[in-house]
Write the structure tokens for this entry.
Amino acid sequence: MAMIGTRAVILRRIPFGDTSWILHAFTADEGAVSLMARGARRPGSPMAGAVEPLGLSEIVVSVKPGRDLQTLSQATAVSQREGLRRDLAATAGAMLCAEVVLRMAREPGAHPGIFAVLEDALSEFDARGFRGPILWRFLSRFCEEMGWALAVDHCAHCGTEELPRDPVFSLPYGGFLCRACGTLSHEPHLHPMFAQALRESARGAQGDWSRADSERVEDLWLEHLFRHSQQRPRLESRQFLAEVRP
Ligand SMILES: [Zn+2]
């Protein structure tokens, strides 16, 4: 049995028996892992503060090869992200990032880029409260890390950087289309303001657009993610965010 120490973000936890948790975590060194945290729900358990969802912890896992569920041996909280507890919208934003990683980054093995993208977004929500650009930057970087970067600065089909102000946005092609390639698609042209919003959102910039436009930008990012991952999970935190965002 090997012991592995790594940093982990707790994505979700499910009660098991009377005293334990099953944790789904994303780790810096091992990627997505499922862990049995025996006894962690007992009052006074030394692991109690380190198995909170959205928290960052230093963990030690005893690994038995070939098992889907490994055993959590030790856990120490690095950050419990107290800031999230004071801000419901920031919590909802952080939950959405965690849920996207939980549902879509399931390939076994290390993916330090995804860990960094997730950890950056959660730390920012914790420190600054809810900001749309934190979420957009997360979605944009997550797509890049998964190999599904959205083409917003060049044509997704031919690569030219000469884009019209109202490009066609094509989900099958994975981004904007130039004037010529736009004729290949039956998808609609974007309004210039909205094309600009989508481009700025990829950089995590805050433009002067409405909450409805912000939500539409996020919908397009999520549609793009769903299409490439070939799955359409029901993201519960998306609904929660819609209810509490300022
Ligand atoms: Zn083109």
